[in-house]
Each structure stands twice: as C-alpha cells, then as structure tokens.
Amino acid sequence: MRILLVEDDPQLGESVEAALQLEQYAVDWLQSGAPVKSALASTAYDLVILDLGLPEVPGMQVLRQLRHDKHELPVLLLTARNELSDKVGGLDAGADDYLTKPFEIDELFARVRSLLRRGSRQSSNQLSASGITMDPVDRCVH
Questions:
Q1: Beta-bridge mates of residue 134
Q2: Nearest Cα to Cα of residue 13 among 34, 30, 33
Q3: Higher pLDDT, residue 139 or 67
Q4: pLDDT at 15
Q5: pLDDT of 88-139, one tens digit each?
Q6: Which domains, ranges and CATH numbers included, belong to the chain?
Q7: Following DSSP, what letter does each residue of the chain receive, concatenated?
Q8: 102 cis-preceded (ω within 30 degrees of 0)
Q9: pLDDT value, residue 133
C-alpha cells in the first residue's frame, strides 16, 4: 500500500514516515501542499495523510481540489486544529477521517488500516502510467 504524507513539520513528518515504513507501507512525504496535484497525477496512492497548516497551498484547499478533481482515495486529516468547527469543516470538505495532534502512533495505524480497508472495497478500473490515467468504465482519459 502506498501512502502520500503531506506534513510540513520536519520532525513529525520524518517520524510518521519512518513509523509507517516500519509497518510495511510505501510512503512519499511532501512538506508543502503545492506538489500534491502533480504527485497524485504521477503515482497511484491508496491513502493521503494531510496536514491542514501547510505552506504555499493550505491543506483545506488541497482537500477541496482533490474532491473537485474527483479523486476518491481516502484522506486522513492530521492536524493540530482541534476545534469542533475545524473537524466538521474538514469532514464536510471531503476528508474521510480526522486525527488531532498530538496523537498516539497506534491510533494513527488503526485509522490508516480502517481507511485502507474501506478503500480496498472500492474497486477501481483506472489505469495510470506516465501521468496519464484511463478509466475504461467512464471512458475518460486524463
């Protein structure tokens, strides 16, 4: 399973990346929201772990763009924003789960497993290579 981790805090990002790799996940770590769209266009991910407080392009904007572009992969928001309005706003914007910092790594693992189980039930017929995605069911090429 391949995970896109988008976290601007170097210490936290490094720790989460290493922990997920120990759990046998392939992890690509970005420290800004700006390159997310191109990363998703070039690589097939099973899950996105997304911070809201990102430089250049905020995490909420990244999330809204993902959903606008019809990306159906699960998104776990991992953020220090713990107000109810932030949680509701993130989930209403299209996040599949919301975990606040600080967190226990075992809870992160459990949420990742849960989201990946849900995502694996949604079969995708899309084929991707070299930044080109073809969906034979919808007869679309991107």
A1: 127, 141
A2: 30
A3: 67
A4: 97
A5: 999 999 999 999 999 999 999 999 999 998 865 444 567 888 888 886 655 6
A6: 2-141 (3.40.50.2300)
A7: -EEEEE---HHHHHHHHHHHHHTT-EEEEESSSTTHHHHHHHS--SEEEE-SS-SSS-HHHHHHHHHHTT--S-EEEEES--SHHHHHHHHHTT-SEEEESS--HHHHHHHHHHHHHHHHHS----EEETTEEEETTTTEE-
A8: yes
A9: 86
Determine the pLDDT at residue 122: 47
Report the alpha-carbon distance of residue 124 to residue 56 in Å, rounded.
31
Query: Read out DSSP for 43-67?
Result: S--SEEEE-SS-SSS-HHHHHHHHH
Check: CB of residue 93 under 8 Å from CB of residue 60: yes
